[in-house]
Structures are given as structure tokens and as C-alpha cells.
Amino acid sequence: MAGARTAEEAAKKVAWINDPRIRGLAYQIVLIAIIVLLGYEFIHNAALNLEKQNIASGFGFLKNTSGFAIVQTLIDYSEESSYGRVFFVGLLNTILVAVIGIVLATVIGFVVGIARLSNNWVISRVATVYVELVRNIPLLLQLFFWYFAVLRSLPNPRQSLEISGSVFLNNRGFFLPKPVFGEGAGLIGIALIVAIVATVAIRFWAHRRQDRTGRIFPVFWTGVGLLVGLPLVAFLVAGMPVTLDYSVLKGFNFVGGLRVIPEFVGLVLALSIYTATFIAEIVRAGILAVSHGQTEASYSLGLRPGPTLRLVVIPQAMRVIIPPLTSQYLNLTKNSSLAVAIAYPDLVSVFAGTVLNQTGQAVEVLLITMLVYLGLSLVTSLFMNWYNARMALVER
Amino acid sequence: MKKAIVSVVVGVTLGVAATAASAGTLDDVKAKGFIQCGVNPGLPGFSNPDDKGNWTGIDVDVCRAVAAAVFGDTTKVKFTPLSAKERFTALQTGEIDMLSRNSTWTMSRDTSLGLNFTGITYYDGQGFMVRKSLGVTSALELSGASVCTQTGTTTELNIADFFRSNNMPYEIVAFEKNDEVVQAYDAGRCDVHSTDASGLHAERLKLTNPGDHVILPEIISKEPLGPVVRQGDDGWFNVVKWTLFAMVNAEELGVTSKNVDEMKASENPEIKRLLGTEGAFGEGIALGNDWAYNIVKMVGNYGEIFDANVGPDTPLGISRGLNALWKNGGLQYAPPVR
Ligand SMILES: N[C@@H](CCC(=O)N[C@@H](CS)C(=O)NCC(=O)O)C(=O)O
């Protein structure tokens, strides 16, 4: 109390020019001004030079017709679409591999990380060999390995592997029947939403009840029942409005249905198998960081090894795991830009590749692309920081 | 990572460098003592390094011919292998002095990239290669096919045009590097491999069983391939342009690397002007009067470099066709030295 007062009094006596807070602020302002000025000068100079060298510039090209086809598009796209549309097609393709790659890498990483600590000699050795082997080989080589391994091991379309004429596998991809939603199918969607809301509510209620009474409610199985059951009932009630569109061999290739292209499979495999090795090490470190006393305490309370890991060790290990895990997610997203090597049409391939080459507007195209990767990284970081804060030690 | 480097290079060069091409390239080249020439990383017949790092090919010979004209020495050239995607940026940023990499002369490349094509080294057109086992004999039977090709090329766009104008569905699988295009086609990912017809002949040689593949008769586009320089540097543009013209004129006049010394004594005024024994045509391009003599003596005339690199007696076995002299029914024609 007394100390605080003297500091305050001291601050009053100092002239404003020597006030550290004001000084600090002034330095910040000057620094920002310099950065803005440099940035402006840089852009201005670039524009001038482009003009002097007769290189087209500006963002008008985004409205021009692309004229080329893309092998996988999540939104409507044709050769008559604009370069702007190509951007979105590429962006969505990037996000698709990143999300699926992250999920897979996390699952494999956790399993392998835990396996490395297993008491079973064979399991822990296998996990060690996997980690040491895979993380020391350059990703690009692995990408080629998986892509060409996938391609070379599959038959051509005319000799496809098939399951009862509805699912096909060949070197053009994996073909599945595609559900086509007819009239009344909206009911199924509504049922699904209701089921999700109900599951969340039940989980919440079950936690409260367990806190109060200690009784455990089977949330997982109830949830599964609801998520599968309700849409199924809706499907039957609405008079089965969903039909399946099968893939059929027509000429050279299969048409119709749902298709997963080999480029996607190769890229996701390579990215997730590679990143999983780093995640495994992070998980192992996280678990080892939890004192063994915790496990012993849990055993002595009568918990079996499974629940001990799930309820005692992992939640504490998560605090150590999440920050480095975030970097791995960011790495995976950025590494997905190697896609062009195996013809997967991600943002770098179609936008920073083909569009750049057709238009020659390197500065604009690369600026947009870099901003996108920055944006994706920031979003991932923000989400992980939020999750980290949620997992942080809550003291009661 | 490479992408990041490219973008930084583009950004920094365009943003910071006050003047990218201030002094003329010809002066720069003379000052540093060699020409930096952008070429294909590996396309037999056009530009291909052997295991000792010696480059051969018609595009490479064009670079050497420019070195012969400028320095009277064909070794004063350094090669930068460039992918389809990198090539124009490398020229724009001044990393190379000229590009001679089977690049198609198109309007947008000529007018909006700040570049100029100096002539046509090779009249090409896009073709298709398929497996014999498919039993296809015409490109019009390719409805629904998967096509493997390389990004950053005119090929990518021509395929779209061809299939759309013939109302045929198709799928395009575009790789960054040519090696993967060939491998993926070989592995059966695609029914068709498409690129410039000359390239197809060269690449068929790289397949596991070249004999199992056929090149279809249709040529679906015009691909005039030629050297490229930066726009706005007329002195250098003239040197590269007239180097090619000199080779074509030499062939037309019957001047070859073998007989050029005897030809110096020729009474034909056209030959005299070409070889610099009459007039002072070298002055106009700021070079010595023996500029064309050196080209023919050290590299050869157009017909010689064609025959040596891609002609009937090479593994590519391409006949002159469109690339014959105009007098022989082809398109190769050069303005006169006068
Ligand atoms: N002439 C076309 C195509 C040129 C091109 O890049 N062709 C490919 C296929 S033949 C090539 O040379 N690739 C060799 C490589 O990049 O290694 C163009 O200028 O866009």
C-alpha cells in the first residue's frame, strides 16, 4: 500500500517528457509511421516499375475468364468461370486437404505417441521405428512415394476392383454412390440438427448429474443412437426421398457418383503420415510431463489403465501438448502447398500456378496467396489458443 | 519454400530496384563477359544436359549463336534451367538475359508480360499421345478421357479449347514438373499425354515401352516457339532477332559451318553482306562485322542445327515439315541482310 503511493507520487514529479509510458507510446508511433511509409514506398515503387516494364498490373484480371479446367472442384466451376472463381476453388481444395489431413494426423499421432510409451515391447518398437523413419525423409519424396504407390498398385478403369457394382477402385480414383436428395429430404436435415442439439444438451445434463450424484450416464451411446436414429426415422417418415447416383464406366472413365481422386488420397496420406510423427513425439512428451504420481494415485483410487489415461493423464498432458500441436497444424497447412507436384489442384497450384502463368501478374497473385496462408494460419492459431485457454488448469 | 523465394525475389526486385533494365542488356552482357540464357531443364532435341553437364539442343544452339555473334566465342554462355512456370518471371526480373525454352509466342505473353518474342525457332503444334492398346486412332475419339499435362503451358488451355469445341467431356491432370507428367501417364493415371508434338516425340523416348504408345495425327494448335527478351531494350532485341535471321539466311544462301571460309571469297553480294566482307551491317547492332560469320562458323546455319538436334537422323527423327525454308515449301523465311 505504502509502496504504491510513493511510486505514484514519484511519477507526478517526473516531467512528461521523461514519463516512460509517454516515451514508450511515442516510440511505437514513430515505428509504425516508418513501417507504413516503407510499405507505401515499396508498393508505389513496384507499381511504377511494373508500368515502366510494360507488365500488366492491378486486380482487374480477377474478372477475366479462366479458360482452363480443374480436376476437383467443390463449388460449381467451368472453363467459362473467372480467375476470381478459380481462387475460391483452389482455396476450398486447400482447406479440404488441410482439415482432413489435420484430423488424420492427430488421430495417428495420438495413437503412435501413446503406443511408444506402451509396456508392450513390440508395439513400442514399431511406433519408434515409424517415427524415426518417417520424420527423417523429406516430405516431397514421401509425397511422390504415396502418389505413385497408390497409382501403380491400382488397376485401370476397365479392370476396377468393385464391391457389388456400386463402389469402384481404380487408378482414376475411388468411386462411391452419391446420395441425391429428393423432395421432403429437408426433414432428414432437420432431424439431424435436432439430434445434434439433443446430444449436446444430454451431455451437459449428464455432467451436471454426475457432479451432483456421481452416477454415470452413457452419453456416447445415447448420442450415437440419436444421431443415427432420428435421421433414419425422418427418412422413413418422409417416404425415403433419397436415391443413390451410381458411378458407371462410360468410355475411358467412370462418370456420375462421388469420386475421390488419387491426387487427393496421395496428398492426404503423405501429409498426415508425415505430420503424425511430430505429433506423436509431442504427445509422448506431454504424457511424460505428467508426474507418475498422478497415475499411481489414480490406480490406487481403483481406476483402470484406460480411464486413467483418458480422465487423469491426457487432460493434464493436453496443456503441454496444445501449443506445439498448433505449430504442427500450421505446418501441415503450409506443406499442403506441395500439392502441385502431384497435380492436386490446391490454391498454389491453380491460382499461384496456372492463373499466375496465364496472366503474368506475379505481384498481385502472390500477394493474395500469401495473405490467404497468413489468414489460415491466424485462424488456426486463434482457434488453438481458445482451446488452450479452455483446457488450462481450472482451479476450484 | 521455393515459392516463397520466388515471391520474395519478384517483390524485392520490382519493389526496390529502381531500374531493372537501365543500361542496355547488350552492354551488360559485354561487361560481364557471358550471356545468361534460360533453357528447358530437359527436353531431348531442344535443351538437354548430358551427364557431364554439356547442354545440347536446338534452343541451346540459339543461345550459343548469340554468344558467337557477341563474343565470337560459343562458350561464353551460362544456362539456367527453368520450369514452364518460372521462365517468364526469371526473364522479367533480370535473372536471365534471354529465354530460349520452347516457349510459344502468344499475344498475351508478347503484350502484357513486358516481354518480346524475337522470332520463331521452331514451328510446332500441340498433339496427343495414347496407349496403342486403347485402339484410338483419332483425337476425336477421346471423349471422356483423362489428360495429363504440365501447368504454366499453353497446352493446358488448348486442351480445354479442343474438348469444349468438340463437345467432349474430359479431365485434365496438371503437374508442375514434366517428369511427373510422364510418370503419371506411364502409371496409367491418364489416357492421354498432351504437349507440343516435338515434345511428344522427345518424351515418348522416356516411357517404359515407347513402342506401346502412338502419337495421334491431329495437331490442335499453333505453337510457334521462339526466343524471348525483355521489352523496351531494342538494342538487345535486335541482336537476338538477327542472330536467328542470320542462320536462316545462311541456309538459304548455302553457307554452312563447313564451307563458310570458302564462302568468304564468294562473289555473291548477299553472301558478302552476310559474312561482312561488304558493307558494315554489324555496326547497326553494335557488333563486329564478322558477327554472322562467327554464328555460322561456330554454330552452323539453321538447317544444320535442325538436323543435328531434332532431324531425321536423330532419335527424335522429325522431318523439316513446316520448318523447311520457304523456298522448299516451309515457313522459315528471314528478311534480307541489306
Ligand atoms: N510451348 C508451350 C509448352 C512448353 C513446355 O513447357 N513444354 C513442356 C512439355 S514438352 C516442357 O518442355 N517441359 C519440360 C520441363 O519443364 O522439364 C508453351 O510455351 O507453353
Brief rundown of the structure:
Chain A has helices at residues 2-13, 20-52, 83-116, 121-134, 139-153, 186-213, 219-237, 262-288, 292-300, 305-335, 347-359, 362-391, and strands at residues 161-163, 167-170, 173-176, 178-181, 242-245, 248-250, 253-255, 258-260. Chain A is of the alpha+beta class.
Unreliable segments of 5+ consecutive residues of chain B? 1-8, 15-21
What's the CATH architecture of the largest domain in chain A?
Orthogonal Bundle
- Structural class based on helices, strands and sheet pairing of chain B: alpha/beta
Q: Which oligomeric form is depicted?
A: heterodimer
Task: Please tell me how large the radius of gyration of chain A is.
Answer: 28 Å
Record the strand order, biggest sheet of chain A: 1-2-3-8
Would you tell me the overall average pLDDT of chain B?
Answer: 91
Q: Could you say which structural class the secondary elements and strand pairing of chain A correspond to? A: alpha+beta
The CATH class of the largest domain in chain A, by name, is: Mainly Alpha
Termini Cα gap of chain B: 51 Å
- The first-level CATH class name of the largest domain in chain B: Alpha Beta
Uncertain segments of chain A are none
Major sheet of chain A: 4 strands, antiparallel
Give the strand line-up of the largest sheet of chain B.
10-9-11-8-12
CATH topology description of the largest domain in chain A: MetI-like fold
Q: CATH superfamily assignment of the largest domain in chain A?
A: MetI-like
DSSP helix fraction of chain B:
25-40%
- Please give the share of residues in helix of chain A: 55-70%
Distance between the termini of chain A: 29 Å
Q: Secondary-structure element order of chain A, as H and E?
A: HHHHHEEEEHHEEEEHHHHH
The CATH fourth-level homologous superfamily of the largest domain in chain B:
Periplasmic binding protein-like II
Task: Please describe what this structure looks like.
The complex is a heterodimer of chains A (396) and B (338). Chain A has 3 domains: 14-52; 83-133 and 262-393, MetI-like (MetI-like fold); 179-245, no CATH class. Chain A contains 12 helices and 8 strands. Chain A has helices at 2-13, 20-52, 83-116, 121-134, 139-153, 186-213, 219-237, 262-288, 292-300, 305-335, 347-359, 362-391, and strands at residues 161-163, 167-170, 173-176, 178-181, 242-245, 248-250, 253-255, 258-260. The model of chain A has no long low-confidence stretch (mean pLDDT 89). Chain B is an alpha/beta fold and 338 residues long. Helix content of chain B is 38%, strand content 15%. Chain B has helices at residues 2-16, 25-32, 58-71, 87-92, 107-112, 154-165, 178-186, 197-204, 234-252, 260-263, 269-275, 281-284, 291-298, 302-309; strands at residues 35-39, 48-49, 55-56, 77-81, 98-99, 115-117, 122-124, 126-131, 146-150, 171-175, 192-196, 213-215, 223-225, 228-230. In chain B, helix 6 links the parallel strand 9 (146-150) and strand 10 (171-175). Chains A and B meet through helix 2, helix 5, helix 11 and helix 12 of A and helix 1, helix 4, helix 5, helix 6 and strand 10 of B. Bound molecules: glutathione (GSH). Glutathione is lined by residues 40-43, 83-84, 102-104, 150, 153-155, 178, 195-196, 199, 223, 225 of chain B.
